Amino acid sequence: MFTGIVQATCEVVSINNATGLKTFEIAMTPELTQGLVTGASVANNGVCLTATKILNDKVFFDVMEETLAVTNLGNTNVGDRINIERSLTFGSEIGGHILSGHVHTLATVKAVSNTDEHYNIELQVNPQWMNYIFYKGFVGINGCSLTVGKLTDNGFMLHLIPETLKLTNLDDCTVGSRINIEIDSQTQVIVDTVERILANKQLA
Residues of the signal sequence (predicted)? Predict the structure, then answer.
């Protein structure tokens, strides 16, 4: 499990293709690799991946075809920056919200507005996921816990502060970029439960 508080953006050093998967080599800092062991879970752009090898602060992750197909890791290239978060440990401060590292869908960047006063990103998502996205609610964006801004017909706005831009790769976003989205699990449970109860009442 994760908190959505990105610890660093790390460079993709190499991507090796194999049958049914790709192996990503990520250059991390000594602080991030301290205590990290093979088999540990690490969020890469919000995707929970297993560390398969650790070598001189380079960490290797095998990414299966399904994950490549449903997340933006499938479009990742050598030299790209990846948002990294180590898994949650008991006793740690939770500054974001609980994330599982299981991406629900991809959003497309529809617009970016960067002025002296603000940095806004407008995202477009499949309409079926808008049932779980609420103004001022939580959502995981490339593994970063963020608050939903204004809702649009088929998406929502993000209003980013300089600190978020400094610590994540969201300032790399351009129109057309694909972003990993993890909706809040508690919100999904509540919405699905209410919809099921209402549907049952209509059938009764």
Answer: none
- CA R_g for the chain: 18
- Which string of b and e fits 11-33 if b means at least 16 CB within 10 Å? ebeeeeeeeebbebbbbbeeebb
* CA distance linking residue 83 with residue 55, whole number of Å: 20
Contact 77, 15 (CB under 8 A): yes
pLDDT tens-digit series, residues 109-164: 999 999 988 999 999 999 999 999 999 999 999 999 999 999 998 999 999 999 99
Domains, the chain, ordered by start: 8-86 (2.40.30.20), 105-187 (2.40.30.20)
Please say whether the beta carbons of 127 and 107 come within 8 A: no
Distance between CA 189 and CA 171 in Å, rounded? 32
Residue closest to 60 by CA, chosen among 79, 36, 34: 36
- Burial grade of 176 (CB within 10 A; 0-12, 13-18, 19 or more): exposed
